[in-house]
C-alpha cells in the first residue's frame, strides 16, 4: 500500500504473530493524525515504523502525549523506525516513552559513487558486534554511515529506554 507523502499517520496492517500484535504504521505524524489506537493497545505489541515519513512539531508533541497515555500493562516494541522517526528518537527526550526500540534505519552513503541507502540497525546485533551495518554498493564501493555519531546517540538512548522518564 502506498500513501501520498502528505497522508496523516495510519495503521496500515494489524496481524497477530506468536501472540503479539504487529501494527504497521505509515504516513505523517502531524496535528491531524489519530493516535488514539495507542491508548487501546493490549498485551505485547510491535509497532513497525518504516513508513513513517515525516513528523511535524505538533505531531511530535501529540506522539509524546500519546505514548505516555498507553496502558502501563502492555509491552510495546518498535521495529524498523524510519530515518525521520530515528531523528526524533535522537533529538527529543522521552520521545518513545516506555516503547522499546529494537531496530531503526540509518542512512548510509557510498564513498565511491555517493549513492545513498538506508540500512537497518538491529540493536541486539549491534550490542554483540559493536558495529553499525555496512553493505556493498552496486558500484563495488562500500555503503557506510558517513557520520555514525547520531546513530550511537540513538543506541545510547535506547539502552536507557526502560528507565522511567521524568514528567
Ligand atoms: Zn557506490
List keywords for this structure.
Transcription Regulator spoIIAA, 5-stranded mixed beta sheet, 167 residues, 4-stranded antiparallel beta sheet, binds zinc ion, 9 strands, alpha/beta, disordered C terminus
Characterise the protein shown here.
There is one protein chain. This protein is of the alpha/beta class and 167 residues long. The protein has a domain at 10-105 and 148-159: 2-Layer Sandwich (Transcription Regulator spoIIAA). 23% of the residues lie in helices and 34% in strands. The chain is built from four helices and nine strands, in the order E-E-E-H-E-H-E-E-E-H-E-E-H. The protein has helices spanning 57-68, 83-91, 123-129, 149-159, and strands at residues 10-17, 20-29, 44-55, 75-79, 100-101, 103-110, 116-122, 135-136, 142-144. The chain has a five-stranded mixed sheet with strand order 1-2-3-4-5. It has a four-stranded antiparallel sheet with strand order 7-6-9-8. Strand 1 (10-17) and strand 2 form a beta hairpin. Helix 2 (83-91) crosses helix 4. The longest helix has 12 residues, at 57-68. The model is unreliable at 162-167 (pLDDT under 50). The structure holds zinc ion. The site of zinc ion has 7 residues, from loops.
